Task: structure prediction
Amino acid sequence: MKKIITLLTDFGLKDPYVGAMKGVILSICPNANIIDISHEIRKFDIRQGAYVLASAASFFPKGTIHVGVVDPGVGTTRKPIIIETKKSLYIGPDNGLLILAALKEGIKKVVHISNRKYMLPRISHTFHGRDIFAPAAAHLANGIPIEEFGPPLEKYETLTFSKPKIHKNHIEGEIIYIDDFGNIVTNIYRELLEKISINEGEIIKILFNDRTEKVLKICKAYNEVKEGEFLAIIGSGDFLEISINQGNAAKKLNIKEGTKVVVELV
Amino acid sequence: MKKIITLLTDFGLKDPYVGAMKGVILSICPNANIIDISHEIRKFDIRQGAYVLASAASFFPKGTIHVGVVDPGVGTTRKPIIIETKKSLYIGPDNGLLILAALKEGIKKVVHISNRKYMLPRISHTFHGRDIFAPAAAHLANGIPIEEFGPPLEKYETLTFSKPKIHKNHIEGEIIYIDDFGNIVTNIYRELLEKISINEGEIIKILFNDRTEKVLKICKAYNEVKEGEFLAIIGSGDFLEISINQGNAAKKLNIKEGTKVVVELV
Amino acid sequence: MKKIITLLTDFGLKDPYVGAMKGVILSICPNANIIDISHEIRKFDIRQGAYVLASAASFFPKGTIHVGVVDPGVGTTRKPIIIETKKSLYIGPDNGLLILAALKEGIKKVVHISNRKYMLPRISHTFHGRDIFAPAAAHLANGIPIEEFGPPLEKYETLTFSKPKIHKNHIEGEIIYIDDFGNIVTNIYRELLEKISINEGEIIKILFNDRTEKVLKICKAYNEVKEGEFLAIIGSGDFLEISINQGNAAKKLNIKEGTKVVVELV
Result:
């Protein structure tokens, strides 16, 4: 069976960088099956990368090797790591990028990649994706045990997304992601809404940033409202989202990731 | 032989959505060969998706499984379908997206995907690409017969592109596509031009939208005119196109898909 | 072993063109492993394409088949060619696009693709990527010898990037690439700097276009300066680059590829 190696970076698709990583992987493990998750993560935005990686990685089969490179600290003392979870292997910088996906699966072991044998002969200051992470992924795919790459790491960076706070009649949350459609994804998940008796089909009031207010139905489909109108919906990640039917809600509201939201039943 | 599964969506490449679909496919059919056709279809633009799918799909080998997801009606009563043609299988929403490609190959059977056994355990309201279409593609690749997915569907959505009208001395047509180079693709094909004795090398007058007029030679290469100058050419889809040598004709003329054109010999 | 075929074009990712090329390849060589290097080369920019191809191709394994299509002269007398190097095969138009990568590996033979047997039955005027280059790549992957495709070509186009000039106390160079991060890549490589005793950790003066001057430290990591500040660094291609830590240097300086630079020790 071909080993799956996924890639997630903030490199964009114009430059030679993603191609170079793929070339390195195939030079070491010629029958790897390389799958792109995303290369359009906002530059240097570790949180956005962590969210996208965690959202996509859970759908891959057991044994998948995920490489994540959003790495503003490249060339400094931040460590290159491998995280072994109950389901997958994650490779990238120790800056929190991998941790959200890894925690969902349950972390078994973290290793500090330090064995030069599994890196390219020359290590640049600026492109560890090519020189350290891609070779590590390919060697793992070839069956090299994780212990060979370096010593276990007891302390590693975490990344915490703010947790929604539930009150008697309202929930305080945050925008954790805005997708390419302009759908506004909050960190308020279905079960939490149900705890204060908010269900699909009901009308809620959403206050963004203590300023902009929207009164919306929690719909089961975008088409329940007219084209161009706002709606609330439980999205594909099981989070409450605010959308416009066939429109871009985030642009219309001029809302960014990190914005506070308060949700209550009308 | 590895089964080829192609993907065409309006998801863009930033979000976790395309990655999630690929993960789902590989979890069910680990040796599928997943090929991206395009994920940059204009959001919700079924016609543009239908054109791109039909243009690319015909070059894939017999037995290819094509998944198309431009799906503004997701979560409503619009049906998920599989179309079996004489050459390929098409999977996606019953909204016309697949029909142009399927009609070119000859439709043998259409099935309404309704067997929950071949969907993900939980079906979201907003992402049938991941929950229904990707699993269906992977199960088809595994050899599950199309009949297993649900009952045959006698009535399904079609999508009609306006047909060019031929007159004695002129042809009325429409812009069906504008590509990333700014090439303006009309629905007027070579044989039609020849019927009113318009051939390569000749000069034609093109009237856009009853307003903008261009008198152009039908060239055999962009380079027949100087850099920055307009030309007409029979493009790679065998349609009449209007272009600028090393420039963007659509931007220069401020022309959009759907615009009417009238072509006549000068 | 599956043959690797890489693709580099200026087609962008919206249109059916890249998908059509992949379909053609898989129709002829069903077990080809198709890898995208980039499809976001600036339209018609042969030099940018040549730089990206040369930067990525060297990381692929021996025997890789690279297809490059940045082809403003498509349909004219410019020849379709195959270049065999000591390591790889390059396929594309004879316009210099392939030459930089090929020269790095050492050219063994160049062939003018002219045997219609290895092209699609119908050759369009505008899309040789699909009709000539993709089929050639797939037939090469199937083991057809290069001699079968056409006669050897003694004279072919080259492409010269300006070479940096070294003086006693300064080096005159040029911006050869600006990446998606806004990193400004010069043609001044590490060894050249060392020849006039400029080393990492030292302070240099860089003059852009005889106008804009920057005095910068040659850092070992972006993080050596504060976020938003300029630095110099030896990049992943071993060239001197000018960057902003977590910012876009090219936008800030409004600098384009081709700009002259003069570097001297302070």
Chain B has two domains: 4-149, 165-265. The interface with chain A takes residues 11-24, 26-27, 30-31, 34, 43-44, 72-76, 124-127, 130-131 of chain B (CB under 8 Å).
